[in-house]
Each structure stands twice: as structure tokens, then as C-alpha cells.
UniProtKB/TrEMBL annotation:
Its EC number is 2.4.1.202. Keywords: Glycosyltransferase, Transferase. It comes from Aegilops tauschii subsp. strangulata. The keyword Protease does not apply. This is 2,4-dihydroxy-7-methoxy-2H-1,4-benzoxazin-3(4H)-one 2-D-glucosyltransferase. The keyword Glycosyltransferase applies. Glucosyltransferase involved in the last step of benzoxazinoid glucoside biosynthesis. Catalyzes the glucosylation of hydroxamic acids utilizing UDP-glucose as glucose doner, reducing the toxicity of these natural insecticides for storage. Can use DIMBOA and DIBOA as substrates, HMBOA (2-hydroxy-7-methoxy-2H-1,4-benzoxazin-3(4H)-one) and HBOA (2-hydroxy-2H-1,4-benzoxazin-3(4H)-one) with a lower efficiency, but not indole acetic acid or quercitin. It catalyses: DIMBOA + UDP-alpha-D-glucose = DIMBOA beta-D-glucoside + UDP + H(+); DIBOA + UDP-alpha-D-glucose = DIBOA beta-D-glucoside + UDP + H(+). It comes from the Eukaryota. Its cofactor is Ca(2+).
Amino acid sequence: ASAAESSGGATATRRVLMFPLPFQGHLNPMLQLADVLHARGLRVTIFHAAFNAPDPERYPAGYRFVPVGAGVPTADLVPTGSNADFAGAVLRINERLQAPFQDSLRAVLEEDEEGAAVCLVLDSNLRGMQVVADRLGVPTLVLRTAGAACLVAFMAFPALCDKGLLPPQGNQYHSQLNMPLDDLQPLRVRDMVFSTTSPHETISTCLECIVESVRCSSGVIFSTFCDLEDVELQKVNDSVGVPVYAIGPLHKISSGPQSSLLAPDRTCLDWLDKQEDESVLFVSFGSLASMDKEELMETALGLANSRIPFLWVIRHDLLHGSEKVGLPDGFEEAVQGTGMVVSWAPQQEVLGHQAVGGFWTHNGWNSTLESISEGVPMLCRPHFADQMINARYVQEVWKIGFELEGKLERGEIERNVRNLLCQEVGGEMRRRAKDLKDKATRCIKKGGSSQTRVDLLVNFITSL
Ligand code: UDP
């Protein structure tokens, strides 16, 4: 029997509405969740911004895509470059898409048969859209695309500001940065400086909206799993007052189409086939993080000097501004055979390849979880948002990687890369990462914690 039949056909005509934030790291988990619900017999309508739009052609019957806000100016909605104001962009997206979304939602509700649309699952950054759904009587669920520890930190943010710990400032600035936060161990003040390029007020408002979206929802969904964030999930449970569904790693529980906005260069998989097991360092900083020319140069030389085989993703916009990426003279000859550069990789497959032995990452939550799911230890170089929190957990809690701190410098890079790939310390981290991978694998099997919670979530959605 199909999933729809086995649940008594209750899901067959039901439609879940979804609205992801239009960034790669947010689209991926939302579309993975869409696949999980679709596989259980629910139909899915995806509202999406007209920019960074998913490709409807990749999705089977039962999906509908509704662009929102075609024609609204988008230049300041896509944060790029050294002064990228991510928090500001999120607030502007809410402001600008709210009215068009109201029109689109109303139209969809009118077209669908009465009661078919059961709820709206939205990214927790889209509080503005939640207000619209409330107004039109549609219950909401919120998807957090970061870990539970991050939400715990966001909830604690206002109190830390009241205590004068955030934002760190004045002549205490440097000593304050390393101050441990006892209630949020292992975090320090510096791990909660979410951005140096968005104004403090903007960050505060943004975090407030996220927490509010969770508290005003009918439930919150996380791409994490109980064995990974047991304590933090308990804290969330104790304080949000709505049901909590930890159903990750979502990319492993879903088998749907890839929602990549850029075309991955699959030739790197052939190159990986030729490398020895666990010998290659994969280097990728996600879809938004950027660096300056000097950092790029030091990275290139550090990698080349380490003599460790590497696969490096240099996105077209990795360099601040629109500068063209220029690698050091002689770099390509120097690393011929030992290194490969691509502009976008099939990251999940790369991390799952037996040749990959380490991941130099910016610790976006998806990248962190994808690495954990494949048992790959990490060299952490967080840039902004929740990345510092994730890196801290990788190093201090799960002990499956370590942070590359301070200014990027070729000698330090070489030393750290070699530690991860060829020293005992890296080996120990790899063993622990493999243990976590086993736990992740267990939780998505029948009867596992995440799979069980998917059942609960589907029952809950169909009861709404
Ligand atoms: N990604 C990819 N190919 C690349 C680099 C990144 O497919 O070459 C994917 C990666 O697998 C992850 C997402 O892009 O799912 C990035 O999300 P993450 O949360 O790690 O970071 P963000 O881009 O949001 O900073």
C-alpha cells in the first residue's frame, strides 16, 4: 500500500503550503522536507521569491510552484560581498514580499477546494508571511534550517544584550569576546556576534522575529537528530510552548530532486575515483561566504604547500565585490594532479565519496550536517550567522574537528590541513565522526528517532 493508502487516504487530497527563504542553504532543507511530505501522499504548493527560484521542471506531479513578488526590486535582497547585510536583507524580503504573498495566498486558497490546504510551513526567517497566514486563517509550522543549539542561543540573545555583554564594545572589546557564556556552554561571547556587517539593531530585530515565528507557530521542525542535540532539543522543548519535530538529517531522509541553484561540476567525482581512500581535503564555503584577494592567495598557497590532495570550490562570487578570481602564478602547475578546482560541486556526493578524508568548511548548518552524515571530520572557518555556533559544537561537543582561527596564513593552513588529514589527532576525530554517522544512519531507519517523528509530524499535519 502507498503511504497515502496506509494512512487511510487522509493525506490524498491534502495540500501543504510551503515558503522557503530564497537562499541555497534554506531552499535545500525546505525542498527536502517537501519531498518527505510528498512521499507520504501530501500534495505540495511551494510559494517562492521570484529570484533564486527553484526549478519546477525537476519536480513530479503533486507539486505546484507559485512565484511571489515578480517585479519587486531585488538588488538589495541578495547579500553579497564584504559588507553583506544578511539580517537587513531578511527584513527587506519580509517587507517587500508580504503584500504580494497575501494576494498569492488568497488566490491559492480560493482555487483549492475548501479545506484542502492544511497548513503553511515557512522558513522561520519569514515572520512577515506568517502574519499574513494568520490573517487568512491558515495554521503555520516553522522550519528552522539551523541546529537546535542556534535557536537556544537566539532565545538567550536579548538577555545577553540587557546584561551589556552584547554587542561587545569599548576598551573591554577583546577580553569580552572570549568570555564563556555559562548558560550556553560551550559558547563564548564571540560566537554570538552573528555579523560584523549588519547593525546590531537589525540583528536584534531579525532574531526576535525568528523566535516569535516559532512561538506563534503550531510546531517547529528541525533538520537535526536527537543523538546529536539531545540537550539543546530538550531546552527548546521546555521553552517554545509548541511541538518540536527533530527529523534530520533531512537530506538523508528525503530522496527528492536536488534543489541546487548552480549546476554542479560532476567531473570532480571522476577525479575523486582516482584518489586514495580518505586522502582528499574537500574545501567549500557554502553559497554566501566570501573572502578577499589576500585570503584567497593564502588559501591557495597553504593548500598547495600541504601537498594534500584537495578539491576546492571557488564560486564565481567567492571574492568580495565582483573581482575576478585570480589564483597565484604557477598555482595550477604546482598542484597539477594533486588538486582540483570547481565552481560548484555536488557536495553531498563529494562528502560521501570514499576518497574524501576531511572537509574545510564555513560550517553552514547544511554543510555541517552533511559532513556529520558521512563521517567526515572538519576544519572549521566560520564566517557569520550560526556558523560560529556550529564550529564550536564541532570542536568542543562532538570533537570531530577544530577551528582555524586568526588571520588566514599559508603556514597555519598547511599545518592545520596536515593535522586533519595525516596526524593522529585527525584520525581520532574521523573515528568519532564515523560514530556520529552511524547514529545519524540509525535515526532515519524505521523506528529511529527522526523517522518516528516524521510519522508524528504527518499525523499532526493531517489533523490540522
Ligand atoms: N553546496 C553545494 N555545492 C557546493 C557548495 C555548497 O551543493 O559547491 C550546498 C551544500 O551541500 C549545502 C548548501 O549548498 O546544502 C549550503 O548550505 P549551508 O547551510 O552549508 O551554507 P550557506 O550557503 O547557507 O552559507
